[in-house]
Write a structure and sequence with these properties.
Oligomer: single chain
Structural class: mainly alpha
Number of domains: 1
CATH class: Mainly Alpha
Helix content: over 70%
Number of helices: 18
Strand order of the largest sheet: 1-2
């Protein structure tokens, strides 16, 4: 499986212009891997999820401080996209679809409230601050997002990914991403001066929802045959290579179908979770994640311009949006009132906007709906919500007990001091890890 990494890197390097030196890129990658690992370890030593350290490392290396990591670099961007795809694939491998469906109603409710309340709250807040028309709509739309990558990473850091709260957050975050795609399509059309029709909105919704449903149904029909076919090969790393190709293919199909690539990767993981080779696949793809996943989180941090914080208008608007953004998701966490769960954990886990919020902000800037100052205000909201969630969740959810070394998602996001997952029943246990023949 380790052989796949160079191939993926070669694809990313193909994005470089012919006359571009590779030395600065190699230096940036070296800084990402070393700084990210050290910062993640330091965060854990002070009782915080390692993702917080990686985000801070991204700010340190980014254009606003040391200037060693440029998130706009096409190769860095490509590597970052691969990182979030691999992360969501691993999360899918760790997620039992039946568990998600079991909390389908509360997850959908959390997702709906988590979109509606922040959107209208952001829109009305923007209007109260003197912003009108499409600008207020973009500000509201940027508040609807939930970064499933960051939320799942923090929950896994804290050993809460397989809890009832974790499953609700995963389901709601996927719902938010699907709805977010629809909102992004609508707002992009409005910002470009286009007409929004019921048929157009319905078509976008049908594509996003239909793809996810079709991927899960067809994938579960194809995956067993695919795994049996792969099992005939004796070459090293064949299973991991084919499994990752399956994830990339579904991610590409999702993009072509008008959905998000991360939804396709997550669906691929959900499908392969049901196969007997699931844990072997996870172990095979983990080594690749050690390289690509930190690139994603450090790139998110590097996208934040700390110099914008000196502008009073940016602080006022950004601060108001932060309040609405946090309050809206907290309200969503309390929406399933009938469940005996830690509602605050659900709400806080939905708070980070991360890369999804950055996409909305970039769209608003590109279309002229946001000027540079308003763009910075939205970025401030993204920054605060992304950074406040990990320590807040750590305080609410508590920390996991130490256990022997494991492999897979927990090791990828937490390091060696993590928890063990029994792949037979998805329960969290404290015994030594299982061998590859246990499933």
């Amino acid at each position: 499986m380790n052989r796949i990494g160079p191939y993926c890197a070669m694809v990313a390097l193909a994005a470089l212009p012919a006359d571009t030196s590779i030395a600065p890129l190699l230096g940036a990658l070296a800084a990402i891997l070393i700084t990210g690992r050290v910062a993640g370890d330091l965060a854990q030593r002070v009782g915080q999820p390692s993702v917080l350290g990686e985000l801070l490392a991204g700010i340190l290396l980014g254009p606003s401080l040391l200037g060693l990591l440029n998130p706009a670099n096409p190769v860095i961007h490509t590597l970052s996209e691969l990182g979030v795809i691999i992360l969501l694939f691993q999360i899918g491998l760790h997620t039992n679809l039946r568990d998600i469906l079991a909390v389908g109603a509360p997850a959908a409710l959390v997702g709906i409230v988590g979109v509606v309340v922040p959107f209208f709250g952001g829109y009305l807040t923007a209007q109260a601050l003197g912003l009108e028309g499409i600008t207020a709509v973009v500000c509201g739309a940027a508040l609807t997002a939930t970064s499933i990558g960051i939320s799942a990473r923090v929950l896994s850091d804290l050993g809460q990914l397989q809890s009832t709260e974790g499953r609700i957050v995963l389901g709601a975050a996927v719902f938010d991403d699907v709805v977010g795609l629809i909102i992004l399509s609508i707002v992009s059309g409005l910002a470009a001066g286009g007409a929004i029709t019921v048929a157009g909105v319905g078509g976008t919704a049908a594509l996003a929802i239909g793809f996810l449903a079709a991927a899960l149904v067809l994938g579960r029909l194809v995956a067993p045959t695919l795994m049996r076919w792969v099992g005939r090969f004796r070459g090293e790393g064949v299973l991991g290579s084919v499994s990752l190709a399956f994830a990339f293919a579904l991610a590409a199909l999702a993009s072509v179908a008008g959905s998000a690539m991360i939804i396709g990767a997550f669906a691929a993981g959900l499908v392969l979770h049901e196969t007997p080779q699931a844990r072997t696949v996870e172990k095979a793809t983990t080594a690749l994640g050690y390289f690509f996943v930190p690139v994603f989180f450090l790139t998110v941090g590097a996208s934040i311009d700390v110099r914008a914080l000196v502008d009073g208008r940016v602080l006022l608007i950004g601060g108001a949006l932060c309040v609405v953004a946090i309050a809206g998701k907290l309200i969503a966490g309390y929406a399933p009132w009938w469940l005996s769960v830690r509602r605050a954990v659900i709400g806080v886990a939905m708070v980070p906007r991360g890369e999804v919020g950055l996409i909305f902000a970039q769209m608003g800037l590109a279309t002229g709906a946001l000027d540079d100052g308003l763009f910075s205000a939205v970025i401030l909201m993204v920054m605060v919500t992304t950074f406040i969630a990990p320590p807040w969740l750590a305080a609410l959810a508590g920390h996991r007990p130490s256990s022997p070394d494991t492999s897979g998602l927990d090791e990828l996001v937490c390091g060696a001091d993590n928890i063990v997952t029994d792949w037979k029943d998805d329960s969290i246990i404290g015994s030594p890890k299982y061998t590859l023949n246990d499933r």
